Amino acid sequence: MNFEVRAARCEDAEALVRLNLDFNGSGGPDAESVEASIRENRQEIVILATANGQGAGFCCLRVARSMCYCEPAGEIAELYVDPRFRRRGLASGMIRLAEKLCLKQGATKIYLLTGGDNRSARAFYEKMGYRLDGEVHYGRALDQGQ
Asked: How far apart (Å, rounded) are the C-alpha atoms in residues 125 and 46?
């Protein structure tokens, strides 16, 4: 099987919609919205892993700058590999590419989030050199009527 890890292109939108549906469930963006995001969103880089030309996984990477820090920091917001293609180096390849892209933009750190009970993901990230940093993350849905 031929595998590739690369930056997503507009023509990958349908594959990304399918992968995102598998990962995050219904209610996600349609192909037109994904294509527009790939073309226009300068705050995010989408990485696609393929197997024989078919979408097999994706990674959403952001590199953020803040007036509070001297260097920008990378954040892997999403990482998913279709179960049929796991344990073949695709997730590792996407993380390595994400790290290279962060370095290219001047970032000296990269962060990611995963569920506290997602043992397999946590073991994988630790194998890749990631460590718990002691941060506690909170979330809140925003009410547009406020």
From this structure: 19
* HSE-CB of 146 using CA atoms within 13 angstroms: 4
CA distances to 52, 66, 91, 103 from 13, rounded to whole Å, are 17, 30, 19, 26
Distance between CA atoms of residues 74 and 56, nearest Å = 23
Query: What gap in Å lies between CA 105 and CA 72, rounded to an integer?
Result: 8
Q: Is 69 in a helix, a strand, or coil?
A: coil
What is the reported pLDDT for 133? 86
Question: For the residues of 44-71, what is the DSSP string, one character each?
Answer: EEEEEEEETTEEEEEEEEEEE--TTSSS
Mean pLDDT of all residues in 8-36: 96
Instruction: Tell the residue number behind the tokens 């930056």, with chain if given.
Output: 7
Tell me the residue ranges of DSSP E strands in 71-108: 73-81
Q: What gap in Å lies between CA 114 and CA 83, rounded to an integer? A: 17
CA distance 60 to 44: 7
Q: Which of 55, 9, 1, 6 is nearest to 35 (CA)?
A: 9
Judge whether residue 89 has pLDDT over 70: yes
Distance separating alpha carbons of residues 31 and 18, to the nearest angstrom: 9
Tokens 């933009």, residue located: 105
Provide the whole-model pTM: 0.91
